[in-house]
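User: Could you write out the 3D structure of this protein bound to adenosine-5'-diphosphate? I've included everything you need below.
Assistant: Certainly. Input first, then the structure.
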Amino acid sequence: MLLKSTFQIKNRFKCTIRVWRTIHNLSVPDGKTYINGKWVAAKSGKTFPVLNPANGEIVANVPDCGDEETNEAVDGCYDAFKTWKNTTAKERAGFLRNMFELQMKNSKSLAHIITLEGGKTLAESVGEITYGASFFEWFSEEARRIYGDIVPSPFKNRQLFFFREPIGVAGIITPWNFPNAMITRKVAAALAAGCTCVIKPAEDTPLSALAIAQLAEEANIPPGVINVITTSRNNTPSVGKRLCEHTKVATISFTGSTAVGKLLFEQSASTVKRVSLELGGNAPFIVFNSADVSKAVTGAMASKFRNSGQTCVCTNRILVQEKIHDDFVAALAKAMQNQLKVGEGLKPDVTTGPLINENAVRKVERHVQDALQKGANLILGGKIHSCGKTFFEPTLLTNLKKDMLISKEETFGPVAAVMKFSSEEEAIEIANSTRSGLSGYFYSEDISQIWRVAKALEVGMIGVNEGIFSCAEAAFGGVKESGLGREGSRYGIDEYVQIKYMCLGGLD
Ligand code: ADP
């Protein structure tokens, strides 16, 4: 069977991609990345392979950039900023609107790229492209609402003004689990504010970033406004450090692990950079006695198993109150058996694709083994799936305890672990007992309880009787060690602007 993708924005980068028993002709760049408006190879000529997590096959080879290419990208980006910041808000809104339309027009092919390099199911990849495009749409609208203030003056002969100005070059470092949307959420806000950017995508999923650069070229976004530095795992620390320490980079926006976020924060101190961080979570999902159990199960399925459990807002600890515990566990087990189908993301009906790589599987295995050794009960799954070494069986554990790894760290896999609790106070104490504070969920039909618990949970985002809350309008971000700043929403622009105060005197 020969399938041909329609992603032919610029035909010059056609390369053949081998996929399980099918051949797709995708116009993804072969051995080139996008710096200062040009498609270029690494100076060393080195490339690194992008692997399909479902079968280990090489999808494409991309340049292994280092410090030299990073400097070049930052210089070009800095020069482009001098012009881009002076475009009108209406012009920038127009560019972003074009990006939105191009992304939607190429939705299927862009989704295909996500599934090839990231493993998620095609349906979820299509969802990510729509979600990712919504940031271009949202920030094309926000671009025209970046207002300043005129402040009442204490002096008769002076007027006071605050301007919101673009901060400058943004260094954007993104993860593999949303290889399109985590870039668009940052880039769209940066461009709307009048900033330019250097994107360093995750080494597992650089093709989606390169596809966004192709869209930018097609949308006639000026050279240097968007740059992509593809780099291998080996070169990543040095490229990251360069971005953090470069005096021409004004801000670092990062989504990824807490450990790397802390390192980037530290490295950015030398130049007193603005830093926005969206880091790991350890989301509690609390089901109170008053909850509608069937709604809670639907929410748990969505928030736990999306992207095979690999999102930063995925449920990590399920806390269920005594009276409904057994009913909830039985209903969740049934839903998992009936609704989840493991397999390659390109196959129809598959709901649960592979994990990103074997390291990810090893972590999930370690968490399950640790829980079982410390007294958890295995209800479903528990081991590597017969589909292959990157696939893990959807797993259900009960009798989760506070000292188990799952309670303390993000599992990032298809493991639902349930803990029984007796009182509301106890649930809140357990939920807040970590240094993470990204998201949380709870189910209750008691309005007073809803208000109390929403206020008590130490997280940046809460789903109340809802398992999925992400959208461009949401203020996305965490508290405690889960991050700094907010993305999306009207606050997303704040990460890319600085306030200038002007006092205009002599007005006698
Ligand atoms: P994960 O564990 O989900 O892969 P990481 O924090 O390791 O999360 O990766 C998120 C992003 O951070 C990726 O783009 C990755 O390449 C990048 N990254 C990892 N280590 C560093 C580092 N030392 N400096 C800069 N970026 C890094």
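DSSP finds 14 helices and 23 strands in the chain.
User: Perfect, thank you.
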